[in-house]
Design brief:
5-stranded parallel sheet; 2 domains; single chain; DHBP synthase; 11-stranded mixed sheet; alpha/beta
Length: 338
């Protein structure tokens, strides 16, 4: 089982960081926190190390990895073949932070990390633990979410331990992740920049910095097709228990026959009186999208483990851009969408 080591997120212990770095630089796997979710880290320049990520997660080789660095200099020197003005503007505005940029890759990033495609997703995480670890390794770190493929992303170290504890050497525990959903992925290799996975940084924010239109793609790709970005599979972020998403047709009520359900109501329910008579084992209402992004995966993990819950219903009462990342995640987690 993985060694779980607690760290102060504001001042990570250099000895622990160096111990984790030795695991990574000698070909092992370490789970560590970012501001979005916990990542499963490996040396991004070592094909054998990257293969261990795919094996541990049961991840299809068509699903690429995001590469993390602690500085723009490392990204430019090690990860990418081009660094356009657009990338610099966005880096100045949003890094360190939850924005991944897709750019032409350098020869130092192996094809196995990018599903064989000629570009790579890169970002600088906001977590001091993550940046200290990357700096100690002195190389970029590939790090998808530290969970089995297509399942709920982890926002606590205990989530990682429960899912992958027997597959990795160390878990760095710095408490809950601040953002709670994965980074926004923006493809800068297209004529018009395109968001391939929505996240905490919204399209309007990006368009304002670039001074141009930004497309939002919501592609669902087959498992045997190379994906330009993580998060494009039909099933992703999913609990083991069945999740129903009420998105297009809001229910008048979820009544007694769902007595062993957990119900999550997201957004403003003003003018939706039918939702006031929900009858469920557990119910939670979250009106603020930032609070909902922070709480979602932890809630799904909790309800997945709760023996009193047999199914999960999520009612999406708001549809504005602020909720687009949650709509994306829940749409891929759901077995039924109404």
């Amino acid at each position: 089982m993985a060694e779980i080591v607690a760290l102060n997120p504001a001042s990570p212990d250099p000895y622990i960081i160096s111990k984790a770095a030795r695991i990574l630089t000698t070909g092992g796997l370490v789970a560590f926190p970012t501001e979005t979710v916990y990542g499963l880290g490996a040396d991004a320049t070592n094909p054998d190390s990257i293969l261990k990520i795919y094996s541990a997660k049961g991840r299809p080789p068509t699903n690429p990895l995001i590469v993390h660095c602690e500085s723009i200099e490392r990204i430019r020197l090690t990860c990418v073949a081009q660094w356009p003005d657009q990338a610099q503007k966005l880096a100045d505005a949003f890094w360190p932070g939850p924005l991944t940029l897709i750019l032409p890759k350098s020869d130092l990033i192996p094809d196995i990390a990018t599903a064989g495609l000629p570009h790579v997703g890169v970002r600088i995480p906001q977590s001091l633990v993550a940046c200290a670890l990357i700096s100690a390794c002195d190389r970029p770190i590939a790090a998808p979410s530290a969970n089995r493929s297509n399942r709920i992303s982890p926002t606590l170290a205990e989530h990682v331990a429960a899912d992958l504890g027997d597959q990795i050497q160390m878990i760095l525990d710095a408490g809950p992740c601040r953002a709670g959903v994965e980074s926004t992925v923006l493809d800068l290799t297209r004529t018009i920049p395109a968001i391939l996975r929505p996240g905490p940084i919204k399209a309007a924010q990006i368009a304002k910095i670039l001074g141009q239109q930004v497309h939002s793609q919501n592609e669902t790709l087959a498992e045997d097709q190379a994906h330009a970005s993580p998060g494009q599979s039909r099933v992703h972020y999913a609990p083991w228990k069945p999740l129903t998403l009420w998105l297009n047709s809001l229910p008048d009520a979820i009544v007694a026959e769902f007595g062993k359900s957990a119900v999550l109501v997201l957004g403003d329910t003003t003018g939706l009186p039918g939702l006031q008579i929900l009858n469920a084992n557990q119910r939670l209402d979250i009106r603020n999208p930032d609070d909902a992004e922070h709480a979602l995966y932890a809630l799904l993990h909790r309800w997945d483990r709760d023996l009193s819950v047999q199914e999960i219903h999520v009612v999406m009462a708001s549809r504005s851009e602020a909720w687009v990342a949650l709509i994306n995640r829940l749409g891929r987690a759901a077995i039924v969408i109404y």
